Amino acid sequence: MRVIETRLPGCLVLEPKVFADERGFFYETWNKQVFAGLGLNLEFTQSNVSSSARGVLRGLHYQWPKPQGKLVHVLEGEVYDVAVDIRRGSPTFGHWESVILSADNKRQFWIPPGFAHGFLALSERVLFSYLCTEMYDPECDASLRWDDAELAIDWPVGKPLLSGKDAKAPFLCDIAPEKLPRVEA
């Protein structure tokens, strides 16, 4: 597995080894030993799949005080995937990283706990897979505004299709400090 570090500490792009022949292909999306060898000793508690049409933007989502780490990849289609560091005290607080994830490139994106996450569907249809390190808890569910000018995320669309929740999400500067994760010592 090839590991590509990003500008955000802990956020990694992972490229699995793909075994292909005339019949198709095979690759591992998760292997506890391989990931441990990369320094990622992860325990996943929940697996999710979402479907989105072109122009749908999901996010930016996070949980607090039960943060989720997410290992994400695309099963069908292509997305513009974004992680934002929202950990108080982090030198990269408010910084973001993006990566194109697609069924063709088979890349995965590891987003550690303490980061907000979102994606924009670039293809007609997207099937998106999430492995999460913490169970979803509606009491901990939180969002950050996708078009926050202070974040200045370079989304490749001007008017995405949003859920009501995402359209009303607060700007980072309007979120109380106690409602954001902290850098772990």
Break the fold down into its secondary structure elements and pairings.
Elements: E1 2-5, E2 12-15, E3 19-21, E4 24-26, H1 32-37, E5 46-53, E6 57-63, E7 70-76, E8 78-85, E9 96-102, E10 108-111, E11 115-121, E12 125-132, E13 141-143, H2 164-167
Antiparallel strand pairs: 1-2, 2-10, 3-4, 5-12, 6-11, 6-13, 7-10, 7-12, 8-9, 8-11
Average pLDDT reading: 96
Strand content: 35-45%
Count of structural domains = 1
The CATH superfamily is known as Jelly Rolls
What does this structure look like?
The protein has 185 residues and is mainly β. The chain has one domain (2-18, 28-179): Jelly Rolls (Sandwich), CATH 2.60.120.10. 5% of the residues lie in helices and 39% in strands. It has two helices and 13 strands; from the N terminus they run E-E-E-E-H-E-E-E-E-E-E-E-E-E-H. The chain has helices spanning 32-37, 164-167, and strands spanning 2-5, 12-15, 19-21, 24-26, 46-53, 57-63, 70-76, 78-85, 96-102, 108-111, 115-121, 125-132, 141-143. The strands form three sheets. The chain has a six-stranded antiparallel sheet, with no helix packed on it. Strands 9-8-11-6-13 form a five-stranded antiparallel sheet, with no helix packed on it. A hairpin with a 2-residue loop joins strand 3 (19-21) and strand 4 (24-26). 32% of the residues are buried. The model has no long low-confidence stretch (mean pLDDT 96).
